[in-house]
Amino acid sequence: MRLADATWTDVRDADVDVAFLPIGSTEQHGPHAPLGTDTLNAVAVAEAAAAAYDAEPRAGVADGVSRGEALVAPPIPVGVAEEHRAFDGTMWVSPDAFRTYVREAAASLTAHGVDRVAFVNGHGGNVEALAEVARRFSRDPAHDGYGVAFTWFEAVGEHAGDMGHAGPLETALLRATNPDLVREDRVDDARDGGADRWGEWVSGVNLAHDSEEFTDNGVVGDPTAGDGERGRELLDLASDALAELARAVVDREAVDRQVENDG
């Protein structure tokens, strides 16, 4: 279920197990990919994972608990992205503002009985803040919510080492899910003007705080190495991993409730 497309009565009458909250960024992705790349990719993975989750109805781990459905919340499109501030169109908020907004947005779902949330992340700059959000959300005494943070490009197996920025993985996933938004006539220039790695590293420390310090056009990695076939494989890997995570989160809740009932 896509929350933004549903009516309030649809949500009231639904049996929702878990919500996927896509979280991205509005930031430069080189000359060939849109500013909304991270958000678009997070949404694509969340929607595919919801379909995978819904396609496998089965008994829960506790007697009498059956599998419901996954809900996909509207995406949060602005994140922790000040490192891209030199490139036009980039938007960002402070980590404090980001953490508060995301946590409170997720907490609003618990008021309607949706108390299991997976934060589906598409931007590397959000990772650290989202880990804290998931912990604080799960520990909040004001509700019974439990959340986990999931970053799609960390869940694609051996492909993960090619992540870069606006490089092969992000470009591939866009080509598979939003091909009309990739400026194909600029991909070669994106590759030629990009950097080989993220940052300037000495003794395990990145000396570069902003991306303009090591990439002229915002690209890290080779976007020509990310075709649509690879993108479809990435989508399958990431969405299957997220669906598996969601089942574990929901089964964990079932176990907790069974323990409470038995006690």
TrEMBL record:
The keyword Zinc applies. Pfam families: Creatininase (PF02633). GO terms for molecular function: hydrolase activity, acting on carbon-nitrogen (but not peptide) bonds, in linear amides; metal ion binding. One of its GO terms (biological process) is riboflavin biosynthetic process. The keyword rRNA processing does not apply. InterPro entries: Creatininase-like_sf, Creatininase/forma_Hydrolase. Its cofactor is Zn(2+). Keywords: Hydrolase, Metal-binding, Zinc. This is Creatinine amidohydrolase. It comes from Halorubrum cibi.
